[in-house]
Design brief:
By secondary structure, the chain is α/β, with parallel strands linked by helices. Helix content is about 40%, strand content about 15%. The strands form seven sheets. It has a ten-stranded mixed sheet, sandwiched between helices.
Length: about 900
Amino acid sequence: MLQVRVAHVVPLHLSEGYLDHLLGTAVAAERAGVRPSHATAQSTKRRHLLPLLDAFATAMRSDADAETNDVTSRVGVRGKFMSTGLSTGLTSFHVRGVTYGAFRPDDRKHEYHDLNVVERDFAQMASNGINAVRIPHTMPPRALLDIATRHGLRVMVGLSAEQYVGYLIDRKGAPAIDAIVRAKVRSVAGHPALLCYALGNEISAQIVRWLGPRRIERYLKHLFDVVKAEDPAALVTYVNYPTTEYLQLPFLDLVCFNVYLESPERLEAYLARLQNVAGNRPLILSEVGLDSVRNGEAGQAEALGWQLRTAFASGCAGTFVFAWTDEWYRAGEDVDDWKFGITDERRRPKPALAAVRRAYAEAPFPRDRAWPSVSVVVCTYNGSRTIRDCLEGLQRLDYPDFEVIVVDDGSTDGSATIAREYDVRVISSENRGLAAARNLGLTAARGEIVAYLDDDAYPDPRWLQYLADTFLRTDYVAIGGPNIPPPGDGAIADCVANAPGGPTHVLLSDREAEHIPGCNMALRRAALEAVGGFDPQFRVAGDDVDVCWQLQKAGWKLGFSPAAVVWHHRRDSVRAFWKQQKGYGRAEALLAAKWPEKYNRAWHPAWSGRIYGSTAGRRFGWGARIYHGTWGTAPFQSLYEPASGVLGSLPLMPEWYLVIAALAGLAALGAEWEPLLFVLPLLGGAIAASIVQALLGAAAASFASKPRRRAARARRLTVIALLHLLQPLARLVGRLQHGLTPWRRRGQFRLGAPWPRTLAAPRKGTWQAPEEKLSSIEAALRESGAVVRRGGNFDRWDLEVHGGLLAGVRLVLAVEDHGPDTQLIRVRSWPTFSRLGVLLTVLFLVLPVSAARQHAPFACTILGGLGLLLAVRKLQEAGHSMGAVLATVQREAGES
């Protein structure tokens, strides 16, 4: 076992005068092209030792979730939350902070010149449950951090990047910004009280609009690299605000926003939005508060209470209340017409301080809350390698009323034996597949909520709290949360985590989901039983998608809780990844047979939502626009991007390899008939598209355990690119082996002649609106297995039945009223052919004729045969669609 002993480091005490000297020396040296080397042997050791210790801490498993104010170890990021600890294991750290400053400086322009006042303030903060202080604008002296250490406080240090951004416009007389930032970082680097560095605070939206977002992003990325070079183990953030929400800053360790909203509903909705911006990183409200001059001290206290409770319930990793005191200095003068402090100028407590103390004591949830009972079901099949991790994590859950049920689905590797070592119920059965095992767990469950967890995943200690809280506050019948790859699983697992095809959420909005992956899925037991549980035909995968669609079909909604985190081990070998993706391909074939209406012409699920986390780190693509408001005055400015088009997603489709194979076959015919060699550039373009897509995917990779060497990183990126190429191929193999092909027939219908038809049928009795009749026809078509699409706002047709990739049928309905009790129902239907089908038909009519004229009989035969097959296939698809429409309309007319 690796043992690490950390010697006590005596912090350096830098006077503010020495700090000024240090800054001046650094700036002068930077301008002279010389990097100052003032580091002592102690600080050099610190800079080299801390990255090693931080990497070691990150790789450790969480042993507890107890809150701590111990500042003997640095704060780190662990998924959506922050943590501390080394030798005793990781402990959670919820930021319960206040902002401190800006104050009137002394004659030497030192803002924090009276350390006695700082000492008293920090002692008062600590006694009121505050554990963090944010210094927003001025670099604090190291002595301030020493005082923070004595009182168990962490400090967010501001580096004031916003003060220098104007030099990106006017470079004349620009200072050496890198040197200034380096000197600031060196003055506190490695200090145990350091929470994180904030690169800047609210760069003006007008300046961002002037320079463009990308230039600001590059500026902040450069300063981020400067900070990391000086203090590699430190956390770095940037304090943003809603007016520049659109900035894409994926490199930051945590996401901070200043948010002032005076309605609980609006704050909760916007925090859901910010959680999606943050992705799998912690979200901290770096400023939240209310002015007591305009709202009264009682109103301020009430607002801060619900603001803090809403923030923590929404999964924030912490908050900073603006501000500690009403003493505030800005733009060269004291500010006395705003009073955001929770103490007055003389540090006398206002009612807001008691409200903050109570809210922070409860965070993230009150201990005496009435929680619903939960049954956690873990299904395992030969999961001995990871199930111990899973059960250890379940033992650390912080929840008052839950049970754990382990369903052993015929394992042969001792998984059940391991499970019986823990305080859980173990149910053993023969191997019948994942869905059947989940149904066994449902039958045995006693809780109001049934939470499913994979045997290769383990939960955050407050996983159930966040799930249950979302159930209590909403009418969702199923809720999921992020599944994050844990650090320390190895290089291949890191690569697989960055490959496509992993378990992800599909979100319809910031809070409502369309799909929840089964590795982190909680459901109301009554709703799950109402839809009959999981479909046993899904033995390996696809059962979660099916049950989500079943619940939505029943009229219920699914939700997403960004703080309900589980740590999900990814496959640790390429072979295991290949097998997994083949299994997913088989599941897609089963789903397509059961839910044909959920798939498009090419047999791909037509999701309405977007993939969770897909916006994190994305660049501005074609068609992306930022909502600025008139003259850039909108207080909330967001990036709006169009849904990814077909062309952009083609290289990730399994059938893309069939396209490449078809082009390669045509190019091979070029050996007999040279004109077909024109396909070679198309073949090259198709292959290049896959390679470019793989390289772009690798370039966007982020790692749970970051490689230190460039060569190691390059190897990982190479593996990721290869996995991007392998994933659609594995899915294709799984699809083809189980009958899911682009030419798969949709439903079993009798053939109908594929030409236009018109049907008129009288209807007597109660008057029926045309919309009701169309809905009835649509429902009947879907029931028969047809894939139906509704017409849009600008279409002259009502319903379209897809026969396949090449053809379908559209219909339009009209109703004539004849007297008080008679209607005449008219339905007109006609075949339609996809543009792809028409193009291919024309192509394979022209090519064989040309080949025959140039005396290439083999090419002519092959191309002519393909053209004939396409024509027959088009007529088949149109005929089957017409047969479905005629049978359904005639039946509906007969019932009328």
